[in-house]
Amino acid sequence: MPAYLIKGGSPLHGELPVHGAKNAALPVLAAALLCDQAVIHNCPRLTDVEAARNILHYLGCATAQQDDTVTVRFTGGGDHRIPDRLMRAMRSSIVFLGAVIGRYGMAEVSMPGGCELGPRPIDMHLAALRRLGVHIDESGGVLRCTTPNGLCGARITLPFPSVGATENVLLAACTARGETELCNAAREPEITDLIDFLNDSGARIRVASDGTVLVTGVAGLSGCRHEVIPDRIAAATYLCAAAVTGGSVTLTHTRPDHLAAVLPVFEEAGCALTCRDDVIALQAPPRLRSVGTVRTMPYPGFSTDAQSTMLSMAALASGTSVFIETIFESRYKQVGELLRMGANVKVEGRVAVVEGVPELRGAEMNCTDLRGGAALAVAALAARGESLLNQIHHIGRGYETFDENLRKLGAQVTLV
Ligand code: EPZ
Questions:
Q1: Considering the entire predicted model, what is its pTM?
Q2: Of 225, 276, 272, which Cα lies nearest the Cα of 246?
Q3: Which residues are catalytic?
C-alpha cells in the first residue's frame, strides 16, 4: 500500500496555486446530468471526481477530462439506478439523487450509510424531496424514488442548513413545475457555485437578502462553461503546513473572502497575513501561539473541514486551545494518531482541549479520514524525525498532487 514518508523540520517556503474545490466540483458534476453538455474548468484531479465521472457514465453521460477540464455530455441510454459499489465509492454520491430524479423522474440508489465522520443521516434530503412530490420507498437499504405526478415546486424549510440537502433540493427543483422556496438553506461558497452553474445553464434561481433560495422551474437545462471555485480547505491546509513549520507561503488562485472566518485564527496564532485579489501570503512567527477557542459552524462560520489541520497547528503552539465541533459527531478520529507523536490533546465528546507542546516526534500513523489524514501530514512536517503515514488514499480524495505540492514548498515527503 502506498504511504508517505515525511522527514519533519523543514520550514515550507514558496508559492503554490490552489486547485479547484472538490466540494464544488462534485455537485456541479451531478448538475451536469441535467444538461445537454457542460464544460467544467478548474476541476481538481481527485479520486472523488473520478468516482463522480463513473456515476455519470452509468447515468447516460459521456465524459472526458483533459488537464483540469471535464466535459460532460448527456448521450442517453443510461439508467436511473446507481449501483451500490458506485454509491459506496464516495459518501457524497447522494448529491446525485436530486439530479437523477430531475433527469429521469425516478431514481434507485442505495443508502449511503455511515462513514468515518459519524452516522451522516440523509433524513433532511428525503423530507425535502418528498415535499417536491417524490415518493420514496426505503427497504433493504435501497431508496426507490418515483414522481407519479412529476416534480412540483414547494415551500421547504430545512431544520439545519445542510449542504447536501440544499444541493439536492436545487437539483430537483430547477426543472420542477412551479416555484420552490427553500428556507434555512446552506450558504457555503460551494452552494453559490452550484447556483451559478445552474443559472448559467438556463435555471432560474435567486437568493433573497435573508438567504431564502427561490427557484422557478424551467423545462430543461442546456449547459454552460463553468470555472469551479478554488478549494478553500486545501488553501487552509497549506497555510497550516507553512505556519506549523515556521515557514512562509504565498498561495495563488484562492478566494480570501471564502476564508473570512479561518484567516483570523492564523493571526490569533501570531502569523502575519497579506491578502490581495486571489493571493494569500502567510509568514509564520518563530513559535505559534494558542488559537484560543475555535467553534465549527455552518458557513460563514469556521469550517469543520479546516478544523483538523488547525488542531495540528494548535498541538505545537504555546498555550491551550479549545476546539468545539458542532457539525459532525466524530471529527477527532486522527487525535489518537497525533498522540503517538507526543501531542497533548484531550477529547470529550465534541470538545478537544489541546495543550501545545514544544516538539512532536515522528511516528508511524494511519490516516483516519480525508481531513484527519491531511492533519497528520501537517503535524509530521513539523515533527522531529521521520513519520510514515499509511492509508493515504484518504488524502487523494481531496488534495491534488499533495506530496508533490509539499515538495515544491521544500518539504521532505516521499511516496513509498
Ligand atoms: C458537506 O457534507 C461536505 N461534503 C463536507 O466536506 C463538509 O464537512 C460539510 O458539507 C459541512 O460543511 C461535500 O460537499 C461533498 P451537511 P454534507 O449535510 O453535505 C447532519 C470534506 O472533508 N445531517 O451539511 O454531508 C449531518 O450528519 C467533507 O470535504 C443530518 O442529520 O454535510 C452533519 O452532522 C466532509 N441529516 C450535519 O448535518 C441530513 O439529512 C452537516 O451535514 C443531512 C445532514
A1: 0.97
A2: 272
A3: 115
